[in-house]
Amino acid sequence: MTNESPGRKLRADARRNREQIIEAARNLIAERGAEVPMEEVARRAGVGAATLYRRFPDREALVRGVALDGFGRVVAIARDAEDEERDAWRALSRFIRRAAAELRLATWLSIWFTSTWEQLHADPEERRLRQTLLKILDRLVRRAQADGDLRHDVDAGDLTLMMALLLRPLPGLRVELTQRNVDRYLALMLDGLRAGPDIQPLPDGELGLADLGGA
């Protein structure tokens, strides 16, 4: 016999349906691009079309849900790296490598769904997640610099923009970047961030947390 109330079970079912829909949409968008039919998302999620449209009445709402879920995953990756790695450089490296797949999907979403993405920047939940992420990265950057592992003339804004530029698809590129390609260039980026006796000073032009909405 269970003590679970009907209302609580309904909430649990609704939450599970929502998670299944978002996971299905994430996978289908990654596999097939922007034009995935809503009905196909429902089939992949194992729910009826009515359930899908009750949770996400249109494609814009679904993309928003996928994007916020992805942002939440990136924040969790950053938080876990900070909590579990005693060495700040290892924490930064771990975050950059593990967050790449999530950020790559976010980059594609920003290209395919431009208007939705612009509206998302005004979303309070997106702003909260962005501020949380940038504050974690700022702490890791300062710690790694204090340890002498990260060059002193970069900040969290530099890391964020470097990853965004690296993961953005190049116009006219006839081959699709694989995860091995991404890993290679992330390693090259990390090598360039290392402190050392012979590094050349960077030109001015850095963007801080306030510029990226993190303050």
From TrEMBL:
PROSITE patterns to which the protein is assigned, alphabetical: HTH_TETR_2 (PS50977)
Cited InterPro entries: Homeodomain-like_sf, HTH-type_TetR-like_transc_reg, HTH_TetR, Tet_transcr_reg_TetR-rel_C_sf, TetR_SbtR-like_C
HTH tetR-type domain: residues covered: 15-74
Keywords: DNA-binding, Transcription, Transcription regulation
MF terms in GO: DNA-binding transcription factor activity; transcription cis-regulatory region binding
DNA-binding region: 37-56
Domain of life of the source: Bacteria
PANTHER family to which the protein is assigned, alphabetical: HTH-TYPE TRANSCRIPTIONAL REGULATOR BETI (PTHR30055:SF234), HTH-TYPE TRANSCRIPTIONAL REGULATOR RUTR (PTHR30055)
Name of the featured protein: Transcriptional regulator, TetR family
Organism encoding this protein: Micromonospora citrea
